[in-house]
Specification:
With 235 residues, this protein is mainly α. The chain is built from eleven helices and three strands.
Amino acid sequence: MPTSQAYPDPEEVLLLAADAARIVLESGAETYRAEETAQAVCSALGGVEAECFATPTGIILSFFGQDARVRSIVRRISKRSMNLERISRVNKLSRDLYAGSLDFDGAAAELGRIEQIAGYPLPISLLAAAMGTGSFTLLFGGRWNDALVAALVGAALVGAALVGAVLSRLTKELTRRRSSDFFTNIVGGAAAALACLAAGRLGLSTNPHTAIIGVIMLLVPGVAITNATPTPATW
């Protein structure tokens, strides 16, 4: 941990810690991990009694500076995705800060580089969707032709979702009227079910119901379920 004689501006420390926690949450991490990250960054850079409260949609952070003044900030989380590389690199950043092997300027530069890390390329996303849906179809008792149908429908579903996300960012009107994830999942599930049933009618799928289950697994909020699981266990 760094010595007390080289602490940076507490306001800058507050912004850095809040940005680190925001990136962690936006990348799909648990809320407790965002809280620990913010507290570690503040403590490593001179914050006293750092406290952070994080939810999937927001962060509240405060701490005492070396001048005994309380500083706080609120950050809204408006987007979430899955990027394990970002989470891993922010965790390493907070550990390096706490160990004293990284200073404030280096941490700020590294956090900027982390935020520029893009998501997975489209071919990898489509391949992962196809492999996942096909594997789930086989797991639930489907045959190879069912798995192939599920893989194609799953890849098409993910491709449509990615294209829709890009269009919503480029079009301000669509951004203002962004549909909820609940509505998107309903439409996506219905489209996937119809496509699998159509494949069954055409003789391409022996058991279209298993293909439907495999594709629907793409829409299951696995991150939210995983993040919520430890909470009841600690009661």
